[in-house]
Automatic annotation (TrEMBL), chain A:
Belongs to the NrfD family. The chain crosses the membrane at residues 37-56, 81-101, 113-139, 159-181, 221-240, 260-280, 301-322, 342-360, 367-392, 412-433. It is a multi-pass membrane protein. Pfam families: NrfD. The keyword Cell membrane applies. Keywords: Cell membrane, Membrane, Transmembrane, Transmembrane helix. It is found in: Cell membrane. It comes from Pontibacter ruber. PANTHER family: POLYSULPHIDE REDUCTASE NRFD, PTHR43044. It comes from the Bacteria. This is NrfD/PsrC family molybdoenzyme membrane anchor subunit.
UniProtKB/TrEMBL annotation, chain B:
Residues 750-780, 818-849, 850-879 form the 4Fe-4S ferredoxin-type domain. This is TAT-variant-translocated molybdopterin oxidoreductase. CDD domains: MopB_CT_PHLH, PsrB. Keywords: Metal-binding. Gene3D superfamilies: 2.40.40.20, 3.30.200.210, 3.30.70.20, 3.40.50.740, Dimethylsulfoxide Reductase, domain 2, Formate dehydrogenase/DMSO reductase. The lineage of its organism: Bacteria, Pseudomonadati, Bacteroidota, Cytophagia, Cytophagales.
């Protein structure tokens, strides 16, 4: 049994009852799509169309459609890959680590955050495949028994580790997300009026009965999956960072990369969650569930991780100087003062300076400011990967091979296209799936909502226990 | 008989009914529904039965699917009768000769299944035994050029040879006026004799010889021949606007001689000192120890001052001139009499007369100039050509034949050639394609490619060589000499003609002598066949020349120089995509010409690289070209290469590239002067120059090393800087600290040594590699995108302007007159290769013989290996470069594909490729040795780059064999000049470089 301090801010506001929660969340699923949603989907579909066209050009004519060259072998492709993977991290962190730490405020945002993780990883996974010269042979990176003789994958290669890391991460996240959805699907099933909807949601809910045993297993599985997912939050971006850290290229070959990348991933992920949440709560009128408290908590995480990232940037410079390796020193001087100085300073401004504004409580609690800064962080984190990848490669060891990279329209198309893909998926999710985890929000309603908290302060402990039990049986 | 049958096919047979008898001969007596589907017998009525519908549908679908999966059917026709000597899969080699516009190479032609696929140097030759020029390398593609003429043309229409012969013969019989054959230099003794015989029957005949890049004045000052320069004997070499390593006279032999006296090793710590006075930064200037930029108009002053100083007339350095450098030259020359050589590229008779006088004063004759062996590779006589052009315009020329000559394009009086041609009755061109001149003639009677022809050559007195056909003519072309013979009414072939001609010099049994000569390709016993034209000699005395020059004054304003690019030459072979894609050795620019300009001038005029400028020449013509900021270019001058600005459909590869710069050349006093004052105006247009290298300084890095001869003599152990890692045990070699296990090499360990002191940067190796390994051509746009595919490139670094340590911004700028260093860069075949560890599918791995291998079939194209390569030598197939209309070069047509090396895979799109150490040659060498039950001999296995190097800068071999040349070099140079590039990354390359040594004054 947990004790909740009476002076804590409530997590659910507006005096909601269990039924209100069900109504508020299911309304989106059950009602006809509203115009704003349809308009948003239309825009997202345009993005998706751009994606399909750009991918067609890439696959049909070759990677030459991109702006890469013999010196810069990776640019926007891997930048986008790392950016999307990083964004995905927030979902896992919120649902897994915060679950393990019993952070109750996570309950109203974890569903959308996890969905974001999955869609972001889908977007991310496009790039390792698309960036291959011969993507139709992408399955060769899997250690499959084959008829090519004794051919096996190269376990020394960080790209191979990536394959394992990303696929594991994706499957665990997907399962975790889906398990959480099951009771809510059952709720929608129970309320569904149309025969098709009922059948579909029944199938999606795996005929959830809501029995005590089912709830008990649900809790256990959630806990186990949270345990599994937690190391993944750290491992995935650690391994992604090793794509660079294990190489010999100045600017890549850096031992600070694993923690720096993980912090950066959480940083960018929280920014993206905020961007999405602020829109979702407004669009779907979920202000009582996704409160300013949530926004502020996430902003605090952003200050923390943003500062870690900032320290990492500075440490890199220090180590470059301290190492006395001329190539390393040049790589960093070139970042800040070379032809790509604008990318570096965009990154510094967006990632290091803007998040520091969250030290002001007013800004931290301002939705508009948060939204703008979250966009800044998204941009800054994209530039971070661009700076690492392109400015390190474009001037490495032999000055004879130094070159510039400039993106083609197809490069831009693929990137913008994945954003379209992401929002298409996210909007479909928001329409057809419950965006807030009803079951878990109900579990905290008695303990952490303003109404109950203030009215029955003395009864608090009992009340909460009761409510938990109640929740388990109420799928109304 | 029926009674004797004991076994029946059925009761029907036993009974032998009439019905059975009727069907007895059928295999299947019953009715079979075959015809139903065939629909042949009852065509109109029968349709496919209903029950077969699904079957047919299924079959159709499966067939369509299978057909779309399968690669298209390519026909391979087997030999009905196998030709003698052609063994499928085994190469045949034939000795031959390449000669084009001064570029002479005695060569071996590699043929596979009857197709010439590669040119290599002929080691039996005394003139060019070591390597070839880039143009000679690339010439093998010219025979497969789809744009060559396939038949003769009469007034632009395709015609039959019989008709052409009939018409020309009849016109020649009734010819009025002069008959002239206009050619570039002919060094074929038999051809020359044939031309004289052909002309003999006309009352007024002249064989007019001119060279697009003329050496008329040089010939004039030396009795009609190029003196027999021997750079290997010179301790002091002074070049004045003579790019003798790149484009002047005979670069391939000169490079060989030059480097002979530049190589150093612990046993020979002496080398020549080379001064170069020049306008543009040439390949030769880039190799010079002391280089002084001069304007073309200052040439006369420099030569006069040198002449006065050497002959003791107390000359001093000309005004605004580097006095120290000049004093050093004079001192060195005086101290090395009999061991010095002065050469000038000027086409001014007075200047050349003085240069000859200087050489005489220095005692060069008989020492650094071999009087017995002058060069014949340039014989053009400017005055003769100018006279002919005037005669044509005067209407006194009855017939003109153009052989290897294109004056409507490459003569300064091209306009007058065009107008004059209108007044000539019979105009014939032997051009292989409709070039600018051939477009104006009545008859184009296309000559064979040299690989389809018999010919003989004498590039230098006493050095004869032969060319033999290695493929029968691909098109209905005819060798020029055979045409001449036919038109003279002779029935002999040119082959017999040469043989007859060579009988004069034969010793012993002629057939044996001839066979040996054809086999060796050369005959170098001192006999000479070629007649020269002493009439070209001028009568100027040195004193007269000196006084005529003393009045000259340096011109004010901008002076432009017309020069020849090593790979393009005067432009006859400009349609060769390999040559176009080869970077200029100095500017690294490909696919087009440009205005090379000193930085100061560009800054003053507010110009940046790639800005198009309008150059107005003295004769009022304009040339629009982009600017290339060229360090080393003399102040107040620009230079523009010849060979571009072709607007011909017969040259699609070069069509629309650059502009024609021949208008810069002017005619004065019956000689062609290749520089003239110009006006330059800025335009708003931008035209990107496709450079293979865009960063030009070394950024104070230790990737390429050089030192001075003085230091080398003092202590050879100090000329090379070695990186040492600091540990608590003190500094150690990086290779001693390693994460990886070392490979164990049991059989061979292949390696390469590149002597930076021998490399002149000519780029023959890059082309040789390109051709040997079927490397695709990507075109101008893709070079601009930095996607050239060269497996071997030559990095060229300029020294930077004065800068403080760590001032990265400043050190990006090349010095105004930089010292230049070349570094051939190819896969280093690292023993601890960064690329090998990062490939997820193990598509690149180490062989048991030390070669870093690339398995194209396994590559999925992540490009991680290329990113992780510190040397950036890996090349990615961004597109399909073969069979792709976007890359319409030789790999996109059936004829052009004939040149592909069948031993090397053509890579598909999406895979990585790189230098393989010519693994196909290594394997072949090992197999041949194995067949003879022995180990491969050192020198037997040679990579393409090493084989084609004219200066023997690259040595390839087995480092496990202690007797091999490479092992001995490595032992000899260890700790002195041998170094690995980027040793501190501990990649442990199998390619070792030797520090460049400069003999600074």
């Amino acid at each position: 049994m947990q004790h909740v301090s009476p002076i804590r801010e409530p997590l659910v506001t507006g005096g909601k009852t269990y039924h209100d929660i069900t109504e508020d969340v299911c309304r989106q699923v059950e009602a006809k799509p509203n115009a704003r949603w349809a308009a948003a989907l239309a825009v997202a579909l345009v993005g998706l169309a751009i994606f399909i066209y750009s991918v067609y050009r890439t696959l049909w004519f070759g990677i030459g459609e991109w702006g890469l060259n013999r010196t810069v072998g990776w640019a926007w492709d891997i930048t986008n890959f790392v950016w999307w993977v990083g964004i995905g991290h927030a979902g896992t962190l919120i649902s897994a680590i915060l679950l393990l730490f019993r952070q109750k405020w996570r309950t109203s945002i974890n569903r959308a955050a996890e969905a974001m993780t999955i869609f972001a990883v889908i977007c991310a996974a496009m790039f390792p495949v698309l960036h291959m010269g011969r993507p139709w042979l992408a399955y060769w990176v899997l250690p499959l028994p084959n008829t090519f003789g004794s051919l096996w994958v190269n376990f020394n290669s960080p790209l191979l580790w990536d394959v394992f890391a990303i696929s594991t991460y994706f499957s665990v996240s997907l399962v975790f997300w889906y398990i959480g959805l099951i009771p809510d699907f059952a709720t929608i099933r129970d309320r569904a009026t149309g025969p098709i909807a009922r059948r579909v949601y029944a199938a999606l809910s795996f005929n959830w009965t809501g029995s005590a045993k089912a709830w008990s297993r649900y809790e256990t599985v959630s806990l186990i999956l949270a345990g599994l997912a937690t190391p993944l939050v750290l491992s995935v971006h650690t391994i992604v960072s090793m794509d660079f850290a294990t190489s010999v290229i100045p600017g890549w070959h850096t031992t600070i990369f694993p923690p720096y990348f993980v912090a950066g991933a959480i940083f960018s992920g929280f920014a993206m969650v905020l961007t999405l949440m602020i829109i979702t709560r407004k669009t779907f009128k979920l202000e009582d569930y996704i409160t300013l408290e949530h926004v502020e908590s996430m902003n605090k995480v952003i200050i923390l991780t943003g500062s870690i990232v900032g320290v990492a940037y500075i440490t890199e410079f220090f180590i470059a100087w301290y190492s006395q390796v001329e190539y390393e020193q040049y790589a960093f001087i070139n970042r800040a003062t070379g032809p790509y100085w604008w990318a570096y300073w965009s990154m510094m401004t967006c990632n290091v300076i803007t998040p520091q504004l969250f030290w002001f409580r007013k800004i931290r609690r301002s939705l508009t400011a948060t939204f703008i800064i979250s966009i800044f962080v998204n941009i800054g984190m994209w530039f971070e990967r661009f700076v690492i990848i392109v400015t390190s490669l474009h001037r490495d060891y032999l000055p004879s091979s130094w070159a510039m990279f400039s993106p083609t329209i197809i490069d831009i198309g693929v990137y913008v296209g994945t954003i379209g893909l992401f929002f298409t998926l996210f909007l479909l999710f928001a329409k057809f799936f419950p965006v807030v985890n009803m079951a878990e929000v109900k579990a905290i309603l008695k303990s952490s909502s303003g109404v109950h908290h203030h009215k029955h302060a003395t009864m608090h402990g009992t009340e909460k226990e009761l409510s938990t039990t109640n929740t388990h049986h109420s799928n109304d | 008989m029926q009674d004797r049958i004991k076994y029946w096919r059925g009761i029907e047979e036993l009974e032998n009914t009439p019905e059975f008898a009727k069907h007895a001969h059928n295999e299947f007596p019953e009715f079979l529904p075959l015809n139903e589907t065939q629909g042949e017998s009852q065509s109109s009525e029968v349709t496919a039965p209903r029950r077969d519908f699904l079957k047919l549908l299924g079959f159709g679908l499966a067939a369509a699917t299978l057909a779309s999966c399968e690669a298209p059917v390519r026909k391979a026709i087997p030999y009905l009768n196998k030709p003698v000597d052609v063994e499928p899969g085994v190469a045949n080699w034939y000795a031959s000769t390449y000669f084009s516009h001064g570029d002479y190479n005695s060569i071996l032609v590699k043929t596979r299944e009857g197709r010439p696929i590669k040119i290599e140097p002929n080691p039996s030759s005394g003139v060019t035994p070591l390597g070839t020029s880039p143009r000679a390398q690339a010439s093998v593609l010219n025979v497969y050029d789809n744009n060559r003429l396939r038949t003769p043309l009469i007034k632009g229409k395709e015609a039959k040879w019989e008709q052409v012969d009939r018409e020309i013969t009849s016109k020649l019989n009734g010819i009025n006026g002069k008959v002239a054959i206009v050619s570039s230099t002919v060094i074929s003794p038999s051809t020359k004799q044939l031309i004289d015989e052909f002309g003999g029957r006309f009352g007024n005949f002249e064989h007019v010889v001119y060279d697009a890049n003329s050496a008329s004045a040089l010939l004039g000052a030396n009795g009609g021949v190029v003196p027999g320069y021997d750079f290997s004997k010179a301790n002091i070499i002074v070049g004045i606007n003579a790019d003798f390593l790149g484009s002047w006279i005979a670069p391939t032999p000169f490079a060989k001689q030059y480097i002979k006296n530049r190589k150093v090793n612990p046993d020979k710590k002496e080398m020549s000192r080379h001064y170069q006075f020049e306008t543009m930064l040439s390949l030769t200037g880039a190799n010079a120890d002391v280089r002084v930029p001069i304007k073309p108009s200052e040439e006369a002053a420099v030569v006069t001052a040198l002449y006065n100083s050497i002959t003791g007339q107390g000359g001093s350095a000309p005004a605004n001139f580097d006095k120290k450098a000049f004093a050093a030259v004079v001192k060195d020359l005086n101290a090395n009499k009999g061991k010095a050589l002065v050469v000038s590229g000027s086409n001014d008779p007075a200047v050349q007369t003085l240069v000859t006088a200087i050489n005489q004063a220095l005692g060069a004759e008989g020492a650094t100039i071999n009087a017995a062996a002058p060069y014949f590779v340039k014989q053009g006589n400017d005055a003769q050509m100018i006279r002919l052009i005037n005669e044509m315009n005067a209407g006194t020329v009855g017939a003109v034949f153009f052989y290897n000559a294109n004056p409507a394009y490459d003569h300064p009086l091209a306009d007058k050639v065009v107008s004059g041609l209108k007044k000539v009755g019979l105009k014939v061109s032997f051009a292989e394609r409709v070039d600018e001149t051939a477009a104006l003639v009545d008859y184009v009677t296309p000559d064979n490619n040299y690989l389809e022809s018999w010919n003989d050559y004498e590039p230098q007195r006493g050095f004869l060589s032969l060319a033999q056909p290695v493929i029968s003519p691909i098109f209905t072309t005819r060798q020029m000499q055979d045409s001449l013979l036919t038109w003279s009414g002779s029935k002999t072939t040119f082959y017999d003609y040469i043989r007859n001609n060579w009988r004069k010099i034969a010793t012993g049994d002629f057939n044996k002598f001839w066979e040996k000569a054809v086999h060796d390709g050369v005959l170098e016993n001192g006999t000479s066949l070629l007649k020269t034209n002493p009439a070209a000699a001028n009568t100027l005395t040195a004193a007269a020349a000196a006084s005529s020059l003393s009045g000259r004054r340096a011109a004010s304003g901008i002076e432009a120089v017309l020069y020849e690019k090593i790979q393009i030459g005067p432009g006859y072979e400009a349609n060769n995509p390999w040559l176009q894609e080869m970077g200029d050795p100095i500017s690294k620019a490909t696919w087009g010409n440009y205005v090379a300009m000193p930085r100061k001038m560009a800054e003053e005029m507010g110009l940046t690289q790639d800005t198009v400028v309008k150059v107005t020449t003295a004769n009022g013509k304009t040339i629009e070209l982009p600017v290339l900021v060229q360090p080393g270019q003399a102040q107040g001058t620009v230079s523009i290469a010849m060979g571009y600005g072709r607007e011909l459909d017969s040259m699609p590869v070069v069509k629309g590239l650059g502009a024609n710069a021949f208008p810069i050349a002017t005619v004065a006093n019956n000689s062609v002067i290749f520089s003239s004052p110009v006006k330059i105006e800025k335009t708003d247009a931008i035209s990107p120059i496709a450079q293979m290298q865009t960063h030009h300084t070394i950024m104070d890095r230790l990737v390429v090393q050089e030192n001075t001869l003085a230091k080398y003599k003092e202590n050879p152990k100090e000329v090379t800087e070695y990186v040492r890692l600091t540990t608590h045990d003190g500094p150690v070699k990086p290779a001693t600290i390693s994460l990886w296990e070392d490979y164990e090499y049991k059989n061979h360990h292949w390696g390469m040594v590149i002597d930076l002191n021998s490399c002149i940067g000519c780029g023959a190796c890059t082309l040789s590699c390109h051709i040997e390994n079927n490397v695709p051509v990507v075109g101008k746009a893709e070079v601009i995108n930095r996607r050239d595919m060269h497996w071997l490139r030559i990095d060229r670094y300029y020294s930077a302007v004065e800068h403080e340590e760590g001032d990265y911004q400043t050190m990006e700028d090349p010095a105004e007159n930089p010292s230049v260093i070349f570094q051939p860069m190819l896969c280093q075949h690292c023993n601890h290769a960064p690329c090998e560890t990062v490939c997820p599918v193990a598509a690149t791995m180490h062989s048991s013989e030390g070669i870093n291998q690339m398995v194209y079939n396994r590559c999925v194209g992540t490009r991680y290996c290329a990113n992780n390569c510190p040397y950036k030598v890996r090349r990615f197939n961004w597109f399909a470069y073969a069979n792709n209309d976007k890359f319409d070069y030789n790999m996109n047509n059936d004829l052009g594909k004939m040149v592909l090396n069948p031993d090397v895979t053509v890579r598909s799109r999406g895979v990585m490729e790189k230098c393989s150490f010519c693994v196909q040659r290594v394997q072949l060498g090992k197999l041949e040795a194995k067949r003879e039950n022995r180990r491969p001999k050192d020198g037997e296995i040679v990579t393409a780059c090493a084989q084609s190097c004219p200066t023997d800068a690259i040595v390839f071999g087995d480092m496990l064999d202690p007797e091999s040349r490479i092992s001995q070099i490595l032992v000899r140079e260890q700790g002195e000049r041998a170094f690995h590039v980027l040793e501190e990354i501990n990649t442990q390359p199998n390619v070792t470089y030797l520090t460049k040594i400069r003999n600074l004054a």
